[in-house]
Amino acid sequence: MQTFTSFQRLLAIKRYSPTTIKTYVGLLTVFQTFIGNTPIQELKTSALLSHILRIVEARRYTYSSHKQLISAIALYLKEVHRRVIDFSPVYPTRKPQPLPEILSLSEVQAILSASQNLKHRTMLTLIYALGLRSGELIRLKIADIDSKRQIVHLKGTKGNKDRLLPLSEKLRDILRIYYQKYRPKEYLFNGQKSATYSPQSLRKVFTGACQKANIGKKVTLHSLRHAYATHLLEAGTDVRVIQQLLGHSSIRTTMIYTHVTTRNLMKVPSPLDFLDE
To answer: CB neighbours (10 Å) of residue 55?
Structure first.
């Protein structure tokens, strides 16, 4: 079976983020297994496009996975085999942009309070307090937290970018209590049998806390990041500051939170108030 060691090494040399490398190589490996023994680069264009459609349907890929698969194949063929293909016939249509369900302050408090395990509660608290992606939390190291300067330094995040986040005194105290009990060595949150906590386990922690808190909304772990941004906006934080805190490349991505905040909506009177009694 074909391996993608040279491609993986090339991406590392080109300084792609570890997450991107893992995702691309993983998708290529699954795709190669799906199509059989014929190497990807030896497929005719028509056959390659046909196989992409088949695997997307068979494995029920989401919009993001569909797009990432094409990006991985295109980059692999271009960089390793100097082959450029037009993937537009199988490229996914524009992803729909439904507004996210936003957790209220009281709902976030209920979720955090429902987590009786100190490690679980600290992980969820950190995601909400800093607006982290799950992968950013999992890869967070003790050395990334500077309690003297009161900052958290996130390294190699989405887009292979670094960003600095403010560490409040309240959050610092929470982290100290956690550290004194668990004494992690390198990564802030260890798994039972690994250096880092697994994404699947982290999602289960969130789901379990939501069930205990009786949260009826359709939310995911990423909803804590949505809540972080929305609550900051409702508190009067400038949207461009929120863009920087979230690590968004485009302000348009951050602007979605202006559509879900209730800060301005609450100030709009009902036309019923204009009527004479």
So the answer is: 20
